[in-house]
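ERR on first pass: missing label on line 2. Operator R.T. fixed the label and resubmitted. Corrected input:
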Amino acid sequence: MKKTVVIIGVALFILLLAVSTFNGVTEAVFHYRSTSALLKSDKYYYGDLFGLSYLPRFKIKADFATANIDREKCGLPRTINLFVAGDSYLGEHFVKDRTPFCGVKKYRFLRVNLNEVGVVEPVKGETNILLVEAVERDVRSFKNPDYLTAKVRFDDSPVRFPVKQLNSFVKHTFFNDIGRRIEYHLFSYSCFTPVKELKAAFNFRFFKRISGEVFLAPDTSRLLFSPTVDSLSPQSSFAPVGDGEIDSIVSSLNYLHRYYTERGFDEVYFSAIPNPVSVLYPGIGTYNELIPRIQNHPGLRIPIVNIYDRFISTEEEIYFRNDTHWNMNGFTLWLNEFNKKIERHAR
Amino acid sequence: MLFNSLHFLVFFTIVTTLYFLLPHRVRWFLLLISSCYFYMAFIPIYILILGFTIIIDYWAGVLIEQVRGRKRGILLFCSLAANIGVLAVFKYYNFLNDNLSFLLRGIGGSNPIPSLSIILPIGLSFFTFQAMSYLIEVYCGRQKAERHFGIYALFVMFYPQLVAGPIERPQNLLHQFHERHSFSSESFKTGLLQIAFGLFKKVVIADRLAMAVDYAYGNYTNLSGLSLLIASVFYSFQIYCDFSGYSDIAIGSARAMGFNLMSNFDAPYFSSSIGEFWKRWHISLSTWFRDYVYFPLGGNRRSAPRVHFNLMAVFILSGLWHGANWTFVIWGALHGFFLIIEKRLSLLCAKMPAAIGDGTIVRVLRTAATFAAITVAWIFFRAESLDKALAITGRLLRFSPSDRIDLKLSAAELLFSGLLILLLLVKESGMVRINIRSSRLFMPVMTLIALACYFFGVFNQRQFIYFQF
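pass 2 clean. output:
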């Protein structure tokens, strides 16, 4: 009896390790759990930054009510095929289908920042648009055009990225982020939330310390994602970026524009979503002005959806206080800018 | 895979449970595969380097045992050269090349040899020294060559001590892989407790102190002497808790499966001399250097100048073992220098009345002086460059009790850090003894440590300091 229990126990641990090893399996579990009231994760329910810090004062349910968005009217018939290579800023919390987009008949989304790979087939005789969207902290990845071309592909021949390097392939396939996934499977349940909150509150109260993954804004009104603030991180808004690197990014974006338009897309847009700290607290360090320097670069050929200028001039609350993402106001501002681009292109 | 990660917790549970569920004849295979997995979690491709040295050393061991005469020496030399060669390429090539460039620049020339863009394989110095120990012991006839390739590979790769020791001797470890270990509740509990204490030292003490130390070393130009003094003392305890915490987890993980690894630490900061410190700090490495370098050089049975030379040579080598940087060389040389001074002073003291050298107060003062000397040496160990180490030492020596303390820790956390150090010293002094192995106390103590680790632990996935060596 005792041995049977031990065997069952170790089998469960092996299963846990196996499930945590492969991102695809964890994603499937994630989707299943997000629909289950009992198993729902406490990691993202109150905002991803709350899920990293568990500071009780930021335990606020994020409002993703798409019904409230103030979308401008669109007079286009739905004839456009839109393909989006983006990240969680256009993830399913914000966009579930083609509905919000002006004149879009067919919509497809690929999360390239999670290394999702997909084959695109622009339809001949129809309008095909590719939108490349990235949050500011990931924009520097575009220095190398392979970052996109290896994922947004025109054929399904074996993927060269990241297999081309055995080491990174093995590391990526078997070991990347495994600890985080184990934590998700073992401890990301609402029954553990009070304990995590107790720990966070205790450390904040006595040691004035919060989780290293988040940064408390100077006015203490919101949480920020640490890598976007820490100037030593390449994702930071305050990490120095040389002119040579800006030139490389611009040249790579121009290449991507040429590459995809030559292969059947009628237009390719690029949109960089500012890190919240770049818009709300640019003064807490020396802002590297990554987005304005790219968008205002004289050599830039790819059309852009400029949301940076709109964001820094608005008085509205455009980001969640406990999440790295924009809120529905921020999303709506961006959506209206993008829809204007589509409309202009169609007319 | 870090010991202070959930990944390790799951891995350890699976491997330890399977170890006792599987029959003895396949256990070596389980441990070998698990050790490969453990190592590959860092940089997978470097498993090939380990494989290369293991194949060479396995055959070298077998052949050294078989042949007679001069061939044995040649075989030993070649196999040691292969091991040191791998170490030289990955650890010292760029250091030597940079120094060559510096020298050539000094005479107006330029160095045509390019630098290598490589990352040092984790634990390279540890497993290379363990493999070299095996070869030397086989050569000296004190150890039989291992004929089972899998067991030999396991001797080098045994996951608990693969990346940061203890650097085992074949006589202590090899035979244990052949022995049948039955599950022992006593061993299992002892192992778990040692793991728990190790984890506490790492995540509660070392990683907390590291926040202040990192800040101080990153902003030393703006900090007061007192802040740097506190940061230096903190670093002494950080590195101790980090490394001894690692050793505790390693020894405990092995112990849970019935393996006995050698102790690596014995309350080193209670040493009243540098000589005593090296008998209590990183014991597996200091005994390695003693047995394979210091004794063959003649040890202390030579003339005084030769003994001083031997000491200096061993400690400079020890410094270089830690890292390819002049800061480590200076760190080693400082310890060598302290030992030489100590030897000279002990000769002087021998002529004094016995009462002067034996009192408690004298011992306390000597312990404090030893700790101060070790702490100054650690500055060179921690700093990235000599300039920085000298600047920090200079500022630190000009400290004043009225200096402002700024270490990016709140007053409460600073106080808490001090209390943790005190708690550690009390435990290590042996003043308080609780029989935590008793069945009644085991669960409460484990729960208490687990809760302390969870609530007070700093979980920032910080690597163990000694992984870089």
